[in-house]
Amino acid sequence: MKTNPDFSYENECDAVIVAGCDEAGRGPLCGPVVAAAVIFPRRDIEIPVVIRDSKQMTHRARAAAYEWITQNTVWAVGQCTPAEIDELNILWASMLAMERAVSALAVRPEFCLVDGNRVPKGLVGAALIKGDAKSLSIAAASIVAKETRDRIMADLAAQYPQYGWDKNAGYPTQSHLQAIEKYGINDCYRKSFGPIKERIKNETSHD
């Protein structure tokens, strides 16, 4: 597999305007799932920053890439709330968030390259497993989605500092689980997710 993404898959599409789509935040116990869609204005563009799978980047490199992407591409984000995640389940909420991101683009894409193994039903495109390591458009979307979600969680952490969301981004780390045990949950939590669902069940049984 290629170590760095490029425009090979974009160039193979029978389309001029191609959007890359990815999401961030399927695994956390709280906060929204956030998706991003990115269209590069042209494929011979000079890119002075590293753009790759956001999970393989340092925070500093990802932040620098985010700033460049949001200033030099057509991009948009979409999200689903914890309540929507509980209603739809995380898979379908992720799909809906991607549809919302594409719908929010200022330019309508002819084709979407979507990270993973499934294309949201509202989009025309192709799924690309490990797409964030293969397609520059998807990699850029992964960076925008990750940075956007981390910033949302940092803002929420300012309201609820006891949970450490600015550091754990809502993932079930040991310190986060201990904070939940000590302080309980609030409306930011996904009540259908295992540890939260179990806690609610236990609290109900003790009533």
Notable traits:
alpha/beta; 44% helix; 5-stranded mixed beta sheet; 207 residues
Give the strand order, joined by hyphens, for the main sheet.
Answer: 3-2-1-4-5
Average pLDDT number: 95
Quantity of strands, as a count: 5
Output the radius of gyration: 18 Å
- Characterize the main sheet: 5 strands, mixed
Poorly predicted segments: none
Q: Portion of residues in helices? A: 40-55%
Number of helices: 8
Overall 3D form = elongated
Task: Summarize the helix and strand pattern as letters.
Answer: HEEHEHHEEHHHH
- Strand-residue proportion: 5-15%
Structural class: alpha/beta
What topology emerges from the helices and strands here?
Blueprint: H1 8-12, E1 18-24, E2 33-39, H2 59-72, E3 74-80, H3 82-88, H4 90-103, E4 111-115, E5 125-128, H5 136-159, H6 165-168, H7 174-183, H8 194-206
Parallel strand pairs: 1-4, 4-5
Antiparallel strand pairs: 1-2, 2-3
Describe this structure in words.
It is a single chain. By secondary structure, the protein is an alpha/beta fold. The protein has eight helices and five strands, in the order αββαβααββαααα. It has a five-stranded mixed β-sheet. β1 (18-24) and β2 (33-39) form a beta hairpin. α2 (59-72) packs across α5 and α3 (82-88) crosses α4. It is elongated. The model has no long low-confidence stretch (mean pLDDT 95).
How do you describe this structure in short?
This protein is of the alpha/beta class and 207 residues long.
